[in-house]
Amino acid sequence: MVLPPSSSSGVPVHDDCLEQFNILKLKKTLKYIIYGLNDKFTEIVVKSTSASTDYEDFIKELPENEPRWAVYDLEFEKEEGGGIRNKIIFYSWVPGDAKVKARMVAASSKEALRRLLLGVATEIQGTDYSEVDYETVLEKASKGA
C-alpha cells in the first residue's frame, strides 16, 4: 500500500518508509534508514537500511549528486555524567550537484515524509558533507538533551 500524496508535489510515500521507521524507533534493530525518490520521481521509497553503528557508513550512503532523506538513531553521552541519550535525527540531503528536477521534487516532497515520522527530535539540512559531519550533528542534537 502507498500512503496518499500529502505534499505540494503530489509524490506519495510508500508505506514501507513508515514501517522501517517504526522498526528503528521501537525495536531498535536499525541504526539508520535512507529514503529517496524512485527512478521516475513518482514515489518516496526506502533506498537502504542498516544496523551499522559507524557514522561514516551512514555518510557514505548519501550520494554526491542525488537528494536523499534519512533518519539516524544518534546515541551520545551527555556532558558531565549526564548519562547516555538517544535522539532520532531527520536529514534532508540535497547536494548542489543534484539535477534541478530532482532538487525541486525533493524540496517539495520532504514534508510528506517528515510528517509521518513521529518521534524525530532534530532536523539537519545538508548540501555538502561538512553540514552533516558527526561533530556538527552532535552539537545540534545535544542542545536541550
Tell me about this structure.
With 145 residues, the protein is of the alpha+beta class. It has a single domain, classed as Severin (3-Layer(aba) Sandwich), CATH 3.40.20. It has helices at 15-27, 55-60, 100-114, 134-142; strands at residues 2-3, 13-14, 32-37, 44-50, 68-77, 84-93, 122-126. It has a five-stranded mixed beta sheet, sandwiched between helices. A two-stranded antiparallel ribbon has the order 1-2.
Q: How would you summarize what this structure contains?
A:
The protein has four helices and seven strands. It is α+β, with helices and mostly antiparallel strands and 145 residues long. The mean pLDDT is 91.
Throw out a few tags for this protein.
two-stranded antiparallel ribbon; Severin; globular; alpha+beta; 4 helices; 30% helix; 145 residues; 5-stranded mixed beta sheet
Low-confidence stretches: none
So what's the overall shape? globular
Q: What do we call the CATH homologous superfamily?
A: Severin
Assigned CATH class: Alpha Beta
Number of helices: 4
* Overall average residue pLDDT: 91
**Helix vs. strand class:** alpha+beta
Q: Count structural domains.
A: 1
Radius of gyration: 15 Å
Q: Write the CATH architecture name.
A: 3-Layer(aba) Sandwich
- Strand elements, count: 7
How much helix, percentage-wise, in residues? 25-40%
Name the strands of the widest sheet in spatial order: 4-3-5-6-7
**SSE topology string:** EEHEEHEEHEH
